[in-house]
Amino acid sequence: MGESRQSTAISQNGIFRWPRHRPPVAAESVPAIFWRRARGGEVTAPPYLCPVQQLESSLKTALQTAAQAVFGLEIPAASLTLQPTRKEFAGSFTLVTFPLTKAFGKGPEQIGQALGEWLKAHEPRVSGYNVVKGFLNLEIADAEWLAVFNQLRAQPATAPMGTDGGPQNVVVEYSSPNTNKPLHLGHLRNNFLGYSVAEILKATGATVSKVNLVNDRGIHICKSMLGYQRFGHNETPASAGIKGDHLVGKYYVLFEKHYREEVKQLEAEGVAADIAKRQAPLMLDAQQMLQQWEAGDEEVVALWRQMNGWVYEGHNATYKAIGVDFDKFYYESGTYLLGKERVEEGMNKGVFFNKENGSVWVDLQAEGLDEKLLLRGDGTSVYITQDLGTAELKYQDFGYDSSIYVIADEQNYHMQVLQATLKKLGKPYADAIHHLSYGMVDLPTGKMKTREGTVVDADELVRDVVAAAKAATLEKGKTEGLSDAELEELYHMLGLGALKYYLLKVDPKKRMLFNPEESVSLEGHTGPFIQYSHARIAAIRRKAAELGIDETADWSSITSLEGTERELVQELARYASVVAEAARNLSPAVIAQYAYDLAKAYNRFYAEVSIFQETDVAKRSLRVALSARVGEQIKQSLKLLGMQVPERM
RNA sequence: GGUUGUGUAGCUCAAUUGGAUAGAGCAUCUGACUACGAAUCAGAAGGUUUAAGGUUCGACUCCUUACACGACCA
User: Fold this and answer.
1) Which of A154, A182, A205 is the last residue of a domain?
2) What is the ipTM of this complex?
């Protein structure tokens, strides 16, 4: 089995036919970028331009002036994009001059030379330039970088970055488990993504609500209930000594096992496979139980309550352990009736239609999709029925301008159907729906499958990574003076950091491979690498405080920076644009990469320059201040990923 | 059959959204702890970006076709 929120609608009419003709998908399908659509393209001015953005925009103005002065021409806005200069060349910003050759009637080098020369002479921030082919590299005076760092420090690392045309009131739905089994690896990617995306959007200044839609009803829930009824002997989590969700999951597996035996038996008796699957006694009983549940049968509902209660207890313990939370829970059992009302609404509006057996459908062929079942002939709901209700309920509760669904990419089609159906209903929030579609997690052995026992259990995995972190810390940690409780907290922080970083560093939309050995690794491109850098910085700050070094000393005597210092300032300064990019793309991976780059730049700096051996007071002070700021931004970046940082490790 | 996603070093992932000599980590090899923390740093080696065309000053990125793997539509 894959994710939760797995479609439970397996066979809807039993007869399958390929559509005869399918119109092409409408041209303006899904925009690649998440921002813009949420607010209809309306752009609000960001509350604050970060120092590099200011520097960049003044350089652009200067470039325009230069072009006027030298060529008497304007640089078209599209060609006036500065990009960071590649490491192997001198300079900080690069203008690509190839696009200007036609309009200016000169060669790319010639244009670069002329503009560079003019800037060097007239623009004090530009200390030098070089031209390589069609690339004009502008060197920025170190005094300017110091000024940038000073401005940066005036803002706390936690200050909101501005929504800049993005949504301002967002609901993020994530996790959304089934209540018939414990959470697994797939849920972890989902949970970490959902939590992190919410944090990233908050960092832009948006109001974000995290919600969890619990899939607590349906045939799969009845399966675990039936399994328990038959084979459970009134066992409880307490009597069995296992977590509630694992207990319930055990009976779900047991049901499947006996069910498959029944099917095999029937097939041996000569019954066709698909009929055997439908006619096996256990399946019939499960379906009967579902009907009893919908009819409100007291005994069934009581069992449902009890078992779901166990699962919630178990899931909540897992949520707590992995550090995710929710502002609101929705339950499918509480929204599917509302969904049926939406179906009725669509019938009244004439946008849905009946088939002979009384089932309700929507025709989405004009949207490039199929006809889609919304309600079965017997009036029971299908998976999408409750989604219609939940969307409405969420809108009533939050009045969002963007509603994000964190769901695996196997449900891309389903989400398109949902959005198209809501549009047919004329819902104002239909356009605000955004599916954050992420790839599934594969194992070295292939796809996770419940039936084949290849599922990686979330609780077990957390235990393993924490154990690995503990072993490493015992071996090489510097944890003198920490209490036992603090040590446990540290192991947990590091183990979970490794796991979260491992799952979040990959572009969400890509399918990823989970390698158990790499996931507990603490070296190289990992969470603990970054956490280690923070612990190092913490040690520097402790020592600086002991020595009474003033971080705010006068740096005006400093005229030049070391290469690694300049690199650090530049790295620090791009933070705001990194957060914006992560928000635009709904991609924690962007933050993860940044945090790694920053830590890497710091470690280089740390190895190359000495802080406390430095005799120049101003320089020593600057280095401590740089360290402190890096520490704060590492902390803040990792917070956006749901990770914490240690003071020592 | 259709729709859709993916394909980059031995492996796992990047590439500022069309820019320079495609970058990191792991694994392999070499060097750096009597210096502020070696969970670190410096270096070597590793590439026909699945293939073939096309678009242009320039293509991992866009277009066409093919191939491989996955997901979905019943």
Assistant:
1) A154
2) 0.96
